[in-house]
Write a structure and sequence with these properties.
Elements: H1 2-40, E1 52-61, E2 67-76, E3 83-91, E4 104-105, E5 129-136, E6 140-150, E7 157-167
Antiparallel strand pairs: 1-2, 2-5, 3-4, 3-6, 6-7
């Protein structure tokens, strides 16, 4: 009896690992499809009528003393209901692989997030806004950003693509 229980536990663990590997592979394929669509895109906008889109860059000093520049893409203040939002940023046209991913939001998540004007309930997935961010070692960054969402009935998807170059500017005190 103990051998049967042990065998069942081992089989469960093995199948769990197998399912986890399949989920990781499916997530990577979904992520890579969004990444490739954005990389291949050649039509970009600079502002959106549906939400606020802002890019900021700030200087940071790492714990090792290295100067880094943190860029942030801030998406908030929705003007329309945006369901099941997905976003991805490509930094300086860098390539991805299974270990190095670009910042994303909602692309590989099972928890769907939505933005609806004047409604916030994080527990139900209704958020005010979100950001994509990371650090680079140079004060100049080129970002390609895609943001996609569905209408309320989830029958129509809207996708907007941005390309922004931002340089850190030292703040001068007067």
């Amino acid at each position: 009896m103990k051998k049967i229980i042990s065998l069942l536990i081992i089989l469960t663990l093995i199948s769990g690992c197998s399912n986890n590997d399949k989920t990781l592979e499916a997530n990577y394929l979904q992520y890579k499809a969004v990444y490739n669509d954005l990389l291949d895109n050649d039509q970009f906008i600079t502002t959106s009528a549906y939400y606020n889109f802002e890019v900021a860059i700030n200087k940071e000093i790492s714990s090792t003393g290295e100067v880094l520049y943190r860029w942030s893409v801030i998406i908030d203040n929705p003007q329309v209901a945006m369901y099941d939002i997905q976003a991805l940023a490509i930094v300086n046209n860098l390539q991805i692989d299974e270990k190095n991913w670009m910042p994303s939001f909602g692309v590989v998540s099972n928890f769907k997030q939505s933005m609806i004007p004047n409604q916030v309930n994080n527990g139900l997935g209704f958020i005010k806004g979100f950001l994509l961010d990371s650090t680079v070692t140079k004060p100049l960054v080129n970002l390609r950003v895609t943001i996609a969402w569905y209408n309320e009935t989830r029958t129509e998807q809207t996708r907007e693509n941005f390309e922004v170059t931002k340089e850190y500017q030292e703040v001068v005190s007067q």
